[in-house]
Amino acid sequence: MAAWESLRVDIARLRNDIETLSKIGRAPDGALTRHAFAPAYEEARRWLKGRMEEADIPSRDDAAGNTIGHVGAADGPVVMSGSHIDTVPDGGPLDGAFGVLSALECARVIRAANLSAPRGFEPVAFIDEEGRFLDCMGSKAMAGRLDMNEVAHAKDPNGGSLGDAMRQAGFDLEKIGKAKRKKGDIAAYIELHIEQGPVLEAKGMPIGVVEGIVGIDHSDFVFKGEPDHAGTTPMDMRKDAFTGAAEFAYKARRMALKRGTPLTRITYGIVKSKTAAANIVPPEIYMRQELRDIDQKLLKRLVKASYRLADKVAAEHRLTVTHEHISGNTSALMAPRVQDMIEGAAKALGLGSHRMPSGAGHDAQVMARVADAGMIFVPSEGGRSHRRDEWTDWKLLEQGANVLLQSILRLMHAA
Ligand code: HGY
Ligand code: MN
Ligand code: MN
After folding, report:
1. Is the domain of 273 the same as that of 398?
2. Mutate which of 90, 329, 362 to test ligand 1's pocket (most atoms within 8 Å of Cβ)?
3. CA–CA separation, 365 vs 189, rounded Å?
């Protein structure tokens, strides 16, 4: 047995980091929100770099705003691991943060062990995984997969531009292309994450080995009618944008259930009425549609079908509708050799594992386009995530972080 096989994470140190980071961006009402490039995010970034500095781990921010450390071999392809430290609005303390802070903990253990592995290791915090501006923006920049048209037009839900947000945080949108890493730079990418769903807990399984990650499409719809008096305009003489939008959402859901797979998801998480008045027939409704599936071709067909359905429903309601693709993520399979390594590392630690798909999007699906990629899941309490009571027991977090450490070490020593 190689000496590195007995290395383990320090859960007290990792716990301290998770608890500290969970206070950065926490409002007095308890909501935890760290949007990419916002002041709370930049405070978290400074704190993270400070933690690396304390552990003697050199770190840098790339041109897109990703934060990257480095330990071990100075040259050649690296093994990379991380996730994101941005959150959804009023999000949980573990989504993304657990993966970044576990990668940091692994870097500390590897740094202290003074390994002579052939490959170096880089912990990373990718910017804007949650898509304040663009889903997985940081990993897309690193993998050279940014759509520059989307970048130029990227706005947050309040209309703020990506360029302005980057400038305020000390970055330059014009230089974002410089974040792309050279081909062959990254030998493998591995990400540890909470499952964010109920499967592992229900199975009583401590470790999930991700086989593939769903593709995601975000599209905007605007239904337009007429702003008439809500009391005097007879029901059959209105052009009520909300009624059309609501019928569309209901029918699109039915269509996705009928034509999709068990992994198809359709969600309208942002719906806004232009007139905020109870006594005006709503003239304009904006909705963002999110569609997901692991079958990328089916996903495309469903998106197109939703556009056709919107046209049909709008016409039936004497409304107009526009639909526009905003951003997306391509589905990806995880590399079989990394899946095997994760399974082997779990087994060596005496832990059972379960192979499964991911219905959540992750930076790993972008990195899979330029490196052998893999993901480790730990159970989520009650399957809860994207909410403030998202949680996982410390013991399970420790086990997941040790599987990550041992998988990284295997990858660093692999030929
Ligand atoms: O939306 C997602 O699936 C991920 O949490 N960003
Ligand atoms: Mn998330
Ligand atoms: Mn996440």
Report:
1. no
2. 362
3. 10
